[in-house]
Amino acid sequence: MSERSRGALGRGYTVVTPANHYPSRLPEFGDQPVVKLVTPRLAPSRIGEYLVSLDAGGGTTRRVGAGYERFFYVLDGTVTLSTAASERRALSAGGFAYLPSDAAYELAAGDAAPARLLIVKRVYEGHAAHDAPAALSGHRDDEPFAATPVPGFTRRELLPVDDPAFDFAMSLLRFDAGVGLDKIEVHDEEHGLWMTEGSGTYVLGADEHEVRAEDFIYMAPYCPQGFTASAAGPAEYLLYKDVWRDGF
Ligand code: UGY
Ligand code: MN
Fold it and tell me: Is the beta carbon of 117 within 6 A of some atom in ligand 1?
């Protein structure tokens, strides 16, 4: 199958490959290209997930207003994320940050090299029993990946999954060659998935898709889903999932 044709809009899912990217612009990023991997225009998605490319020394041309919670994951290069004059976070590749709804921000790439990052945006859904979470940041290598019941499948949680103040999780799921999820899942939560490494086969609804590094998949609530890494080597993806809320 030609690279051009791997992109798909299926029942309850999309697959967007690098060959499908058609960059848009957003006022806050000037001429820097933004690929809108998914937004709420694709019903029923409640998230926007964006691939943002910044030239060396480039960044936001306007401060991005508050009102939405956001998650940042740096793919290449380094960026500085500033929420206030005294609050600057330097993030290298593999670095991440969470900003709560009340935080406006600016982004700047380092002077030496261009940067690319993923940004997830959504409306925070609070819970009466919990205060909204505070900003946090870290790096994927700060902690080792944790074992799961499936041998050869490990996970690294980037946000605290045991804290119901958070309404979403961002997780890195890593599979040894030939290893996969142990079932076809069907669940109420939605996913935005970015392949960070390797390749494999994704079951999506009634279909199967060969996927590889830099592909993106949106999975709507109740989209049947399963994954097996290819025999060629390990595979890994960064997964958004809404958590701790009842779906209303
Ligand atoms: O946590 C999850 O829902 C995850 N296992 N789903 C997935 O990888 N597609
Ligand atoms: Mn799932």
Answer: no
